[in-house]
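Predict structure. Chain length: 387.
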Amino acid sequence: MTIRIGIIEDTLLHGGTQMWSVEAARFFRHRGTEVTVISPSGGWVAARSREAGLNVTSYGYETVSLRDKNAVKAWTAALSQCDVALCTVQPPRGSFHPSTFASRCIAQGHLPTRLVPKTGTIVPSYKREFYRPNKDISPVVIAITAFTQRYLIDHYKIPEAEVPLIYQGIDFSRFGVSTGTMGDTATSRILPSGATPILGCIGSFEKRKGQIVLLRALARIRTTLPSVHVLLVGDGPDEEGLRRAVDEISLGGDVTFVPFTSTPEEVLALLDILVVPSLYKEGLPNIILEAMAMGIPVVSSRLAGIPEAVKDGKTGVLVSPRDAHELSEAIMELWRDRAIYAQLRDGALHLVKSVFDRESRLEQYLRFLERITRVEKNVPTEGVTGT
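Prediction complete.
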């Protein structure tokens, strides 16, 4: 069944979710579907989607939050070209939220479009309507982690049959053990001579990602591992504060800032351990799965959907969020015990290959979206599971 798919990413930022959305759009188009990307002007998603030759409807990021009539017209026209539209649940901006706005455009335009919110991050202050804006128009919400699925069922009282779990997965043609050779040239440019182990933290520079906890842990780690080095990769509102913290803790020679990259495999190839010290508002970061696929052990906060991939002592190491001491101990113990290091590496590789293959997951999304267009209510979700 050929369908027309919309992908709504109402953000100017870039990250794992936004990369997934562009890749998903390209996959759907390759499978013969018509794809429309709805994303603000000047944002990463709109720019990359155009570069990929995708059909893009863009709008003013600020004006849409005011429900400007031109924005309403643009969204309604774009949604009229879609049988079904995936909408990432983003933080609200005042009283504006993309899923409720899209729902209103569909209702007021009398469109047959099905709206499917998609989320991996749970924020307790979010309203139920962000996930279920209109049951007739939006019959399901896709959860990308089992933690999120359970939360939506238990806390928002959304019926279990209406909260399918579909993991996002990763691209093994990009992320694999053999990719490790890609970083040889970059090593000489980025890293100081003799640095070991190389720790990496890849993600937006914002408080919730917890980079400051890793910096505090590093101050302790280097007393035992004097050649340790950390790569902080990304950009964001906290970058200036993190740079100040590096100076205040006297870590200048032990930390390198690396700009955001759309080819994280090149940075991952440099790492001995990926560290994910997130504090809150997390789902299951793609970077964790990508590192695991490349044979890089992960030390991460025990948070949200992360334990579905980082199984403590089997595929990685979990620590308490905000605990710099526990984080430093976990990193040092993992680096010292090479048998455990190898065991976690092998366990992680097995898990991601068996559960998190992106192509099979995108195929699952496509099949599910096709099924959505066939029914009006009580959407069947048999077989739509991430496990």
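Summary: The chain has two domains: 4-169+357-372, 177-355.
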